[in-house]
Every structure is written in C-alpha cells, then in structure tokens.
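input
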Amino acid sequence: MKFVRVRTHGGISIVSAFIDGIGGAFSIDLPLTVTVREGTCDREMKISEDLRRSLSIDTCFRFSVESRIPSGYGLKSSSAYILALARGMALYSGKEISDLDLLRSAAEVSKMSGFSITGALDDLCQAMYGGYCLTDNRKMRILRRGMLPEFSVLVCADGDKRSSGKLRIDGNYVNSIRSVENLAFSGRVFDAAVANGLIYGSIFGLNLDVMNKMLRNGSMYSSQSGKGPAVFGIFRNRSSAVKARSDIGFGIVTKINNQGIRYWKYDS
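output
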C-alpha cells in the first residue's frame, strides 16, 4: 500500500511573536514523524481536511503520528505536526508546491485550527530547515535563517500545559521585546532566547529552581522556551547536560538540530 513518511523536529523560542509579529525559533533533535495514507472522506480528521483545502488537494487522507516532543510546553510540537502532515499530503498527491507556499498554508491552518494566534511561521520555518529562523509572522516572510553549533540541550517540560491558541497578554511589552529582536538579528541567538524566556516567564511564570540547577551544573544559557512552561539549558557537552538532568530529576537530553525536514515515499 502506498504511503509517505515525513520527519520534522521540535524547537525552542528565540523571539515569541505574540507582541509585534516578529518571531524566531531554533531546532532541537526531538523528532516527530507523520505517516500519510489515502483515506475515506467520511472518516477524515478536520486538520487533514483543512490542509488539503488550503493546498487544493482532492484526495482524502488518514495518518498516524509518532513524536518525542512533549506537547503543550512551548517546544513547537504543533508546528512540527502540521508541517509534516502538509508535506506528506503534498508528496502523496504529487502536488508541486514551494517551501514558502507550504509554510504559508501550514501557518494559515495553524491559525484557523486554534494551534496558534500568529500562525507560528517561525516555528514552522525551523521545522522545515533546521538551525534557526527569524520571521515576520504578520507579513508571512522569512527574514533570516542559518545553522547553529550543535551544542547539547536539556529540556525540562513540567507543570500545566499552555496553549498558544488561547494566549492573552495584558500590558505594553514592545520595548522589551524589541531589545530581544535586536539581540537575535545581531547574531546573539542564544542571548535572545534567554531574554525572551525571562520576559514571558515574568508574565506566565518560570520554574527558577530548574533553571538554577541547569546553570549550576554548567549550562551556558538557560531560560524558558517562550511562553513555556518548558525550561531549556544549552551545554558545551552532553555529560554536563546528563548531570544537570540527574540533579533536577527529570528532563530530556538532546542537541541542537541543523537537519531540515526529511521524507520517504513508499509504493507498497
């Protein structure tokens, strides 16, 4: 039976786009794989129906998902999922579509489905290309992207999940978020991610105990991934990240990912 398998990855926020539409994220080696097959229209999930309408595809689909990305913790699981599904559907149907048009369709459906209030083009971009991306989510433009050193990363996802689609922010954070954007566009991606996490941690809460344990175990950078509640630490070597995880008592040790979306097509 014909099917398509697509793999994307989760990520960490550099700049959260909720304030002024400028967003950024970098990819980490937490994979998500979607397997797409032809299905029946009467049993098709709404997300699949919305995507194929956006992509002008007639075929109805069924699909399965395998993921190592904790969902609802600010680690880009929704974007990895939607992009993998969109690419798989396009490949299965033989639909030729540019990367940017695919990203824009995925962002449109992300907003329509309530996964994101901005479309999360930045999160989709890192899932597409790996490395890091900086985007204008209002104009649907990729502003900058590139590769990063593949440092070890510890992510600790704990506490109540936070939905990006239902997020509300009261107050004027424009000046503070512009400072984060300046860091990101000057090449200080990790500094920007730290500052961004502290801003959103001041709004929604931040697990300072986990962050402190990462820092005292040798993390070069530690903060919350955007709105959180996941906390991340970036380490020069894996052994330090493993030691920090042991001190904290939970977490996933991974690394920065520079590999973009991958896919495999099977005819039987």
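quick obs: The first strand starts at residue 3 and ends at 15.
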